[in-house]
Amino acid sequence: MTPYPTWLATAVLVIAAAVPSAYADDSAGPGPAAHNPHLMGDRYQQASAEVRALQLQAYNVATRRLDQLLADHHGSRQPAVVLDLDETVLDNSPYEAASVLDGFSFPKHWDQWVDAAEAPLIPGARAFLRHADARGVAIFYVSNRSAKQEAATIANLKRDGLPQVSTQSVQLKGPSKKQRRDAIAQHYDILLLVGDTLHDFDAEFAGTSLASQRAAVMRMRHAFGNRFIVLPNASYGNWTKATLHAWQPPAKPAANTAPRKQAPAPHAAN
Ligand SMILES: [Mg+2]
């Protein structure tokens, strides 16, 4: 005999079904979310204190480098910074968490998320951008969000209190990122690029294999932390289906025929 009446068990089930899944259980215990390949990356991206520290570190470096580059800037053209948006300025981890917990994949619901214009800011972004603005630096937001998302994206950036947000500064998908950067560079001196994906920095990283990207990173090693400021993004990228190269543990302990050294005898008390 159950200690609870049947109607109570039914009521609990109905209430549980009515709770939005994002609030119902974010522990990703046994269930579909626990097997989602994005779970650990999304958890690291949204919840880890280390990612927050890395984001602040990136913008601290960006601020220091901008001041150094401005001190060395003697051209007649206005200096500029170019930033990506998603996972660089805007934090889409609530959307990523919903996709894991509710079991859907990008691009499902992406337009609704963008149209809501509720993406919070990446820590450090606003302070850096206000600093750049105060120092007379032109700011360009170069993102591969679609052109139809322009109004919502501008609303999101303005709601978050960012400077120099306009239809001129927010440049969404159409021309490639390289073409947009080149167009900006015709009129401005681009001092810094800030992004979470390598094609935010150089076209050499666009549409190439991971091996080529990794080799190019090594060739451009001196640019990182100097002209290129990289933000962490553990949620998505072209690495998500990469093959892992595993160490093979030996089938049995390696034979070691050398006799163990005898432990030295304890010193005799003199
Ligand atoms: Mg991005």
User: Which homologous superfamily in CATH is the superfamily?
Assistant: HAD superfamily/HAD-like
Class of secondary structure makeup: alpha/beta
Order of adjacent strands in the largest pleated sheet = 3-2-1-4-5
Number of domains: 1
Report on this structure.
It is a single chain. By secondary structure, the protein is of the alpha/beta class. Helix content is 39%, strand content 8%. Strands 3-2-1-4-5 form a 5-stranded parallel beta sheet, sandwiched between helices. Strand 2 (138-142), helix 8 (150-159) and strand 3 (170-171) form a beta-alpha-beta unit. The radius of gyration is 25 Å and the shape is globular. It starts with 5 loop residues before the first helix and ends in a 40-residue tail after the last strand. The structure holds magnesium ion. The site of magnesium ion (MG) has 7 residues, from loops.
